[in-house]
Amino acid sequence: MKIIVAVDKNWAIGKNGDLLFRITDDLKRFKEITTGNVIITGRKTLETFPNKKPLLNRVNIVLTSNDNYKNESAIICKNIDEVIEKVKKYENKDIFVVGGGSVYNQMIDLCDTAYVTKIDCSVENPDTFMINLDSRKDWFILEESNVFYENDIPFKYVTYKRKL
């Protein structure tokens, strides 16, 4: 499994139930990488998607503890074991954990690659964070892009690998 995430300088990923930044190039990259594959998301993150609907051209697996949650366009799982069981039938596809914070934290040790968009600024009072891979001894930087800018916001793409 793989992680795909955009983080600020402090590895924050969200505030008030939304993304910290909407960088067009990053959103295009997310779409290119995940289209045709499987994404694992929490319910709250899914509700930040356009029209609060699962993303098109992807298998959407939603991890939620909400027993009443229903969505005909997604596979609903109540725990990590269910997610692991469901993804087994998609071994010919890449599996991406796409958030939010609690889903990343629960699934990080099942992942071996992380596509991180590092945004070189910080947001005031974020409320959702990703585990800082730079502080973990079991993750290392495989490759790093040059710095890009959109609306004066500097960012770069960093691929991390987990030492197995």
Put the structure in a nutshell:
This protein is an alpha/beta fold and about 160 residues long. Helix content is about 20%, strand content about 35%.
The total of beta strands comes to: 12
Q: What coarse outline follows from CA principal-axis ratios?
A: globular
Beta-strand content estimate: 25-35%
DSSP helix fraction: 10-25%
Radius of gyration, taken over Cα atoms and rounded to an integer in Å: 15 Å
Low-confidence stretches: none
Helical/strand content category: alpha/beta
CATH C-level class is Alpha Beta
Order of helices and strands: EEEHEHEEHEHEEEEE
Give the name of the CATH superfamily.
Dihydrofolate Reductase, subunit A
Distance between the termini: 13 Å
Would you tell me which CATH topology applies? Dihydrofolate Reductase, subunit A
What do the pLDDT scores average to? 95
Q: State the CATH architecture.
A: 3-Layer(aba) Sandwich
Number of helices: 4
Task: Explain how this protein is built.
By secondary structure, this protein is of the alpha/beta class. It has a single domain, classed as Dihydrofolate Reductase, subunit A. The protein has four helices and twelve strands; from the N terminus they run βββαβαββαβαβββββ. The longest helix has 11 residues, at 24-34. The radius of gyration is 15 Å and the shape is globular.
Describe the SSE topology.
Layout: E1 2-7, E2 12-15, E3 18-19, H1 24-34, E4 38-42, H2 43-46, E5 59-63, E6 75-77, H3 80-87, E7 95-97, H4 101-107, E8 113-119, E9 128-129, E10 139-144, E11 148-150, E12 153-162
Parallel strand pairs: 1-7, 1-8, 4-5, 4-7, 5-6
Antiparallel strand pairs: 2-3, 2-9, 8-12, 10-12, 11-12
